[in-house]
Write a structure and sequence with these properties.
Elements lengths: L16 H4 L5 H15 L1 H7 L10 H13 L5 H8 L3 H6 L11 H13 L2 H15 L8 E9 L7 E3 L30 E3 L6 E3 L8 E11 L4 E9 L4 H15 L4
Antiparallel strand pairs: 1-5, 2-3, 4-5, 5-6
Helix pairs in contact: 2-8, 5-7
Length: 258
């Protein structure tokens, strides 16, 4: 028998978000691990915030938001705040009620920057890695370091000679501006830099590949169980991966990891 579409809206609905999430959903275990470590960071959060003023977005929710953004490949914080308004799974992850308002994207970004300045993200990451080590899920050998390039949010038009006069910056949107077409011009990181992102470097992934403004991302992996043990972002350079490997190994040595 064919069903019919009921367009009559209910005046009252009783729903439990907890009941809507499958009991075997992998995010349940992640939530349990994250909440356990965030309790331990409570004292760090207390030192970061003043006792006066309006309450901010809870730092615990910001760190858990970054987890969801990475796990579900949400392309921006603004899009994440929009999805939080209607995504029941995301709201359950934060223990939010259905009637509770989503985050304001601008306020969320400002609070996230404060956490990153205090390197709370690093403390959270190290705490999760420590969980794996205490549960004997990480061996003491067979580690590798791999690197890749992360494209910077900067246009090649901003890659200009160092020390150049900036008085002509206002015409960069003009088709007659000479920075629109850079074909045939020699550029290098020694003589040029980006006006909008000076820390980025011009690099290419391999011969014949297009050169882009990038950063280097380096991961220290424990290969026996496939765990990410450490992560480092650096300037993009030919020897950056070797230097990053040495730095991450020294950091693990301080944690008494052989």
């Amino acid at each position: 028998m064919r069903g019919t579409e009921d367009r009559q809206q209910s005046m009252l609905g009783l729903i439990s978000i907890e009941a809507r999430i499958p009991s075997d959903h992998p995010l349940r275990r992640i939530k349990k691990m994250a909440d356990q470590e965030l309790v331990g960071l409570s004292r760090v959060f207390d030192r970061m915030y003043s006792k006066l003023g309006r309450p901010s977005v809870a730092p615990e929710k910001i760190l858990k938001s970054l987890l969801l953004i990475g796990l579900y490949s949400v392309r921006s914080e603004r899009q994440f705040c929009e999805q939080l308004g209607y995504n029941l799974l995301f709201r359950w992850f934060f223990d939010m009620e259905l009637i509770e308002e989503s985050f304001d994207a601008t306020v969320f970004s400002k609070n996230r920057e404060r956490l990153m300045e205090h390197e709370v993200g690093r403390l959270f990451f190290d705490a999760v890695v420590r969980q794996a080590r205490e549960a004997e899920l990480m061996s003491d050998d067979h580690f590798t370091v791999d690197g890749t390039l992360i494209e910077a949010w900067a246009s090649l038009k901003s890659f200009r000679p160092k020390g150049e006069d900036r008085s002509g910056d206002d015409d960069q949107g003009d088709p007659g501006n000479r920075w629109v077409d850079l074909h045939g011009e020699k550029r290098s990181n020694d003589t040029h830099e980006s006006r909008t992102d000076p820390d980025s470097r011009l690099m290419r992934k391999g011969p014949g590949k297009e050169a882009k403004l990038c950063y280097g991302a380096h991961a220290l992996m424990e290969n026996r169980n496939g765990l990410l043990v450490d992560l480092l972002v650096s300037h993009a350079a030919g020897s950056a991966e070797r230097r990053a490997a040495e730095k991450m190994i020294k950091r693990q040595d301080k944690r008494e990891l052989r």
